[in-house]
Amino acid sequence: MTDAVSALAGLGWSAFFQSQLDLTEIDTSLPVRVLAVHRNALEVDGGDGPERLVMTGNALDLEVTVGDWLIAGRDTRRPLRVLERRSVFQRRAAGTGRAVQLIAANVDTLFIVSSCNRDFNVPRLERYLALAKEAGVTPVVVLTKADQCEAPQDFRRRAETILPGLLAETVDARDPSALSGLALWCGPGQTVALVGSSGVGKSTLVNTLADETDLRTAAARAGDDRGRHTTTGRMLHRLSAGGWLLDTPGMRELQLFDVDSGIEAVFEDILTLAARCRFKDCQHDTEPGCAVQAAIEAGTLEPERLSRYRKLASEERRNSQSLAERRTQQRSFGKMCKTVMRTKRAHRGEF
Ligand SMILES: Nc1nc2c(ncn2[C@@H]2O[C@H](COP(=O)(O)OP(=O)(O)OP(=O)(O)O)[C@@H](O)[C@H]2O)c(=O)[nH]1
Ligand SMILES: [Mg+2]
Ligand SMILES: [Zn+2]
């Protein structure tokens, strides 16, 4: 590997992105990773360290978010196009006029942070798992405050039973040596992001995992002493293990909108059973030939899991519905404004 290629690999470049390059582009342009998005500029890294690219002209129309890979002119230093994403966190934004708001791209692993105490809550973990699945990101449950708990392994086992193959790690988030279990996901070229409730230790983890010498992290940390970020930019931080940690305010505001396929992935066992029910529209209640109820009776499906699935699915339906309603309202408000303006202009004799 040449130095330039290994520097790109360290930033997360892979065959997936390489294969999207056009032969004609290779001589005149170069790939860069987006570290931060500002109003009229991007902070990027193409392997030589951070650089600011000014957004003008057509570049302003690019839909770009932190973590994206983009192609920029080698000489012009102008952003040209965004490469297809491996994964993306997005949310439907009400009131911005834009259908979706991109939160972060090309995250490999989502650390779902909870603690070995009363914060531990299976329905909440399932919610975050649905988010991870929807985004196309591998989830890992990180259970902090293991040092304050008698039997942290019990929490770990409970987390790992939620989904087949799901991994959970118990840690003391303040202790770098106790974080070696997380190293697997923090190495060169890997990008992680964090979610979890307030107080579980997300900022503590960021501080422990981040490279102390990384100035961007230091700046964010200075504004974070009350758990608040004063930095408005979206940020990718260097990890001491060589990878990247994506920490943006948007990650904290992710909600359960449009995660229906994520929910289906988390509750695949129930959906597989449901496909075997005698009636297509079976409510898994008292219908004859219900495979879901049969599994509950046989003891292979917990009734609590079925009710958690129902709750989450109906919550998702409600959220998506109310968002659609809000949008319709906005549209009719917009129409009304236009009508008013038109009437005013007509009165003034303008058309
Ligand atoms: N003993 C112990 N304390 C921890 C651990 N992780 C976090 N804490 C403490 O828990 C408190 C909250 O941690 P934070 O890192 O601020 O939590 P947070 O998730 O960033 O919270 P918000 O910013 O409000 O979302 C701090 O006092 C930490 O020192 C841990 O593994 N063990
Ligand atoms: Mg915090
Ligand atoms: Zn059924």
Account of the 3D structure:
- The radius of gyration is 24 Å and the shape is globular.
- β2 and β3 (50-54) form a beta hairpin.
- α4 (122-135) crosses α9.
- The protein folds into three domains: 3-84, SH3 type barrels (Roll); 103-252, 3-Layer(aba) Sandwich (Rossmann fold), CATH 3.40.50; 260-333, Probable gtpase engc, domain 3 (Ribonucleotide Reductase Protein R1, domain 1, Orthogonal Bundle).
- It has twelve helices and 13 strands.
- Helices cover 36% and strands 20% of the residues.
- The protein has a six-stranded mixed β-sheet with strand order 10-9-8-11-13-12.
- It has helices at 3-10, 15-18, 23-26, 122-135, 152-160, 202-209, 215-222, 249-252, 260-266, 268-274, 291-298, 303-348; strands spanning 29-37, 41-45, 50-54, 69-73, 79-82, 88-92, 100-105, 109-115, 138-144, 167-170, 191-195, 235-238, 244-247.
- It has 351 residues and is an alpha/beta fold.
- The structure holds guanosine-5'-triphosphate, magnesium ion and zinc ion.
- The site of magnesium ion (MG) has 3 residues, from α6.
- Guanosine-5'-triphosphate binds next to α6.
Separation of the first and last Cα atoms: 65 Å
Question: CATH class of the largest domain, anyone?
Answer: Alpha Beta
Shape: globular
Instruction: Give the distinct bound molecules.
Output: guanosine-5'-triphosphate, magnesium ion, zinc ion
The neighbouring-strand order within the major sheet is 10-9-8-11-13-12
- Let me know the largest β-sheet: 6 strands, mixed
Radius of gyration: 24 Å
In N-to-C order, the SSE pattern is HHHEEEEEEEEHEHEEHHEEHHHHH
- The unreliable regions are 215-234
The CATH architecture of the largest domain comes to 3-Layer(aba) Sandwich
Number of helices: 12
* Named CATH topology of the largest domain: Rossmann fold
Return the average pLDDT rounded to an integer.
Answer: 85
Strand content bin? 15-25%
The total beta strand count reads 13
Name the CATH superfamily assignment of the largest domain.
Answer: P-loop containing nucleotide triphosphate hydrolases
Count the domains.
Answer: 3
Helix % is: 25-40%
Q: What is the SS-derived class? A: alpha/beta
